[in-house]
Amino acid sequence: MRPQIVAGNWKMNNDLDEGRQLAKSIKEHQDDIPSDVTVILAPPFIHLSDISREIMDSPLQLAAQNCATEEKGAFTGEVSASMIRSTGARYVIIGHSERRSYYNETDEIVHKKIQLALKHDLYPIVCVGESLTQRENDQYFSVVEAQLDNTVFKLSAEDFGRVVVAYEPVWAIGTGKTATPEQAQEMHAFIRKKIQENFSSDAAENTAILYGGSCKPANAAELFSQPDIDGGLIGGASLKPGDFVEITKSFT
Ligand code: 13P
Fold it and tell me: CA 224 to CA 9: how far, in whole Å?
């Protein structure tokens, strides 16, 4: 059985006190969160250690939003995978579309980051997804396939076994425009089929594929009820503890 996951990507929001308060509020609702759902919080780098302490005695998991392409050394301003791991984080989001578009992250860069994350015992949450123009031009399958081919499909089967895939159509992120459950399911099924072709039926069956893009309490249940949607990567709604906890309860 593949895991059910809800991850909150806080992006560049919340100062330290606000972030700690948010983590605390979610922790206080722990009893409402189904025990078979893995819930992950992804605060900014600078708050990882504090949030790690805040959630220490709970099943909540911690993720970074990015990591460096290099192991260590003279790379001013960068944060390495091993530094992230040393905070207690177990996951790292890699290749988010905001990194790809605002910071020119290519598939090559994404692939390097994934390899370092795996080397340092982190589970990479690897984001893929097409832009609005690519969707309108019916290129969405080929775009996502190329993103997978150039990154996670280059891994060994063993390493791939530690990857979480997140499908985030760029046109649905922060726009309030959610992919319909049918659109999301169609892409998730496509991704799973590609995993089967590149690795095995077992790999396809066991890989968690999350949906991201304007996911909120009002649409989470319908999205998560799709056979190939294993949870969500949540932006805006992850900043509201009530909404975020509600989303964790949206599996049927
Ligand atoms: P929103 O939920 O704000 O659309 O953001 C989705 C996202 O980018 C999560 O990584």
Answer: 18
Q: Rounded distance, CA 129 to CA 107, Å?
A: 12
Distances (CA, A) of 214 to 178, 195, 200, 223: 5, 26, 31, 11
Of the residues 98, 105, 168, 246, which is catalytic? Answer: 168
Protein residue with least CA distance to atom 7, ligand 1: 235
Place of tokens 């009002």: 218
Distance from the Cα of residue 42 to its chain's centroid: 9
- Specify whether 186 is catalytic: no
pLDDT digits (tens, 9 = 90+) for 49-61: 999 999 999 999 9
Q: How many angstroms is it from 160 CA to the middle of ligand 1?
A: 24
Range of the domain at 173: 4-248
Q: SS3 for 5? A: strand
How far apart are the CA of 216 and the centre of ligand 1, in A? 10
Annotation marks residue 29 as catalytic: no
> Over the Cα atoms of the chain, what is R_g?
17
Pocket flag, ligand 1, residue 59 (CB < 6 Å) = no
Which pLDDT tens digit goes with each residue over 192-251? 999 999 999 999 999 999 999 999 999 999 999 999 999 999 999 999 999 999 999 999
Whether the CB-CB separation of 160 and 199 falls below 8 Å is answered with yes
Each residue of 171-194: pLDDT tens digit? 999 888 889 999 999 999 999 999
Instruction: Name the domain count of the chain.
Output: 1
Tokens standing for 107?
Answer: 């598939």
CATH of the domain at 49: 3.20.20.70
**Catalytic residue selected from 47, 96, 111, 188:** 96
Element (H, E) at 65: none
